[in-house]
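dumping this here so i dont lose it
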């Protein structure tokens, strides 16, 4: 949620009334979100934690990360996607889109770099992800072919 402040303040960061406030320099605006509640652990949250650990352990190459950042800039200039502000959020979007497209053959809890390369999966590069429909096309995506 976009936030407006009184008294000529540029930004505020912190917790107040059950909300977390922070300034996002890329979006150039104050943002507020509900403070997350700590709930009881359940099977769904532990499964999600395992998936996130595995996806982080894949550790994409620096060239792939650079291509993710460049894609975000191209997409923002073309007004294709909104809300993606860093390479990791786009990386997660690609991986979860891959799981939605191929639910029977992809298991994000056990996926590995070897499986991505040997299986010729579409998350191996930005170019392949666009051509498979995981993310929308932008002008110049053909050049973004660094491997994960």
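and the seq i came up w/
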């Amino acid at each position: 949620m976009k936030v407006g402040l009184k008294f000529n303040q540029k930004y505020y960061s912190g917790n107040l009334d059950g909300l977390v406030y922070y300034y996002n320099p890329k979006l150039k605006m104050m943002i507020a979100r509900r403070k997350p509640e700590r709930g009881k652990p359940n099977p769904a949250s532990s499964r999600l934690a395992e998936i996130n650990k595995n996806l982080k352990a894949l550790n994409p190459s620096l060239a792939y990360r650079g291509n993710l950042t460049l894609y975000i800039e191209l997409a923002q200039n073309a007004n294709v996607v909104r809300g993606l502000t860093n390479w990791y959020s786009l990386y997660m979007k690609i991986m979860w889109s891959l799981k939605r497209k191929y639910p029977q053959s992809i298991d994000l809890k056990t996926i590995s770099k070897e499986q991505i390369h040997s299986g010729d999966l579409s998350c191996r590069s930005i170019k392949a992800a666009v051509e498979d429909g995981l993310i929308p096309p932008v002008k110049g995506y053909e050049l973004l072919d660094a491997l994960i």
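The radius of gyration is 18 Å.
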